[in-house]
Amino acid sequence: MNDMSQTATGNPSVSIQDLDLSFGAVKVLQGLNLDIAEGEFLVLLGSSGCGKSTLLNCIAGLLDVSDGQIWIKGKNVTWAEPSDRGIGMVFQSYALYPQMTVKGNLSFGLKNARVPKDEIERRVARAAEVLQIEPLLDRKPGALSGGQRQRVAIGRALVRDVDVFLFDEPLSNLDAKLRADLRVELKRLHNQLQNTMIYVTHDQVEAMTLADRIAIMKGGEIMQLGSPDEIYNRPRNRYVADFIGSPSMNFMDGHLENGVFSTDELRMPMDGYEFTARQPGGPAILGIRPEHVVTGELVSGAPVQHEVTVDLVEPMGSDTLVWAKLGEQIFRIRMDGQSRVKPGETMVIGLDPSRASLFDAGTEDRL
């Protein structure tokens, strides 16, 4: 899986080459290659245990690799100490010194590094301005909200004046609104600083909104590396297609023959679908996202139309999620929030083959 092109546009700021990490007989990272461009915001995305935090800790120097090399800014740092790698790291926990003020927390590492006092003042002032925590400098962590504490934790990395920032699920301990607010702040921060940022999360919304590119990981390997648009619209395999999207993509098992996908209930000519190679045939899986299923007045313009029975309705405010039955298949449909469908009703849906994804039933790779 790691033979795919994983080079970044421009000169690499961080380069991972043939990286292996094992704990005894257990392989956690396997032959991993990844180039991250100067100023890029790269998100490592995956479920628990996929290796994303492990990879970040290897880059940070907190774990010794079994094989391979790590380069930062053209320097081989595979065996360098974390303090010598030119990185700033922000963890899931704030880990602030409770007895120190915000200013004391921001300046503590710089004082230990014997940075001149006027330089410390300059860096702390700059970080406080960028993160909008200037009024908080004389407070202690106990007097701060969760979002303010995480801003201070980010500021502590920011004052180091490094080229590469590493974030390990920094927003996961915050409530939903604070996460959304700080996500916007992080994006603004990157737009302003243009530093290289590597960000670990299991939250696909964070990944899609923050990243220049996303690396989706599974079992210590990169399943797909690409822009949010590429990941979403052209998933490389069924795993990626299923992982990205909420609710996840609808899948139907069927057969592809002469450019037509068919199941017991459905026949869909794949006109407009771009195959990755020559048009194949045989057992296949069709995937289509709930938001790409059309209803109402738009159905008449859809190339393929089919009747379904509404099973369950979930009003979400801005939209409505409908669970319907297409034969024996449960089919998820995202409709307008003003939709008034009810369980038991029948409705006609429209499908566009050009917005679908086809996967080989054996390899589950995109066709």
From TrEMBL:
Residues 14-244 form the ABC transporter domain. It comes from the Bacteria. InterPro entries: AAA+_ATPase, ABC_transporter-like_ATP-bd, ABC_transporter-like_CS, ABC_transpr_MalK-like, ABC_transpr_MalK/UgpC-like, Mo/tungstate-bd_C_term_dom, NA-bd_OB-fold, OB_MalK-like. GO terms for biological process: carbohydrate transport. Keywords: ATP-binding, Nucleotide-binding, Transport. The keyword Transferase does not apply. One of its GO terms (molecular function) is ATP hydrolysis activity. GO terms for cellular component: ATP-binding cassette (ABC) transporter complex, substrate-binding subunit-containing. It holds the Pfam family OB_MalK. PROSITE patterns: ABC_TRANSPORTER_1, ABC_TRANSPORTER_2. Belongs to the ABC transporter superfamily. PANTHER family: MALTODEXTRIN IMPORT ATP-BINDING PROTEIN MSMX, OSMOPROTECTIVE COMPOUNDS UPTAKE ATP-BINDING PROTEIN GGTA. This is Carbohydrate ABC transporter ATP-binding protein (CUT1 family).
